Prior knowledge:
GO terms for molecular function: 3'-tRNA processing endoribonuclease activity; ribonuclease P activity; tRNA binding. By secondary structure, the protein is α/β, with parallel strands linked by helices. It is built from 3 helices and 5 strands.
Amino acid sequence: MKKRWIRLQKNRDFQKVYEKGRFFVHPSLVLYLLKRPGINNGRIGFAAGKKIGNAVQRNRVRRQLKEVVRLYGRPDYFSDCDIIVMIRKPALDGRFHDIREAYTYCEKKAISWLKSNSKA
């Protein structure tokens, strides 16, 4: 059975990931990652600040990003992590393919960091 994400919803959980987590940057988005040993379900949250655009634009990109994560995300690698995907302004101009490319880029960097960090 394929692992599934749990939604990261509480503000204090978001703040903990921002403060203590590691981040991976792409011009269109930022992926924040916080390892939580002993937990066996990965949690994910999505964020888009008001500076980016109006609510319609932010929600459209957020919906596309959620679909990218649902279709192409690999929760097996992040089973003991909290993740936040923050949308940046260039994502507003991008299409679904561009958002997928940005997410997979950040995800690959995060996975390689997790692999190198777990061996140490």
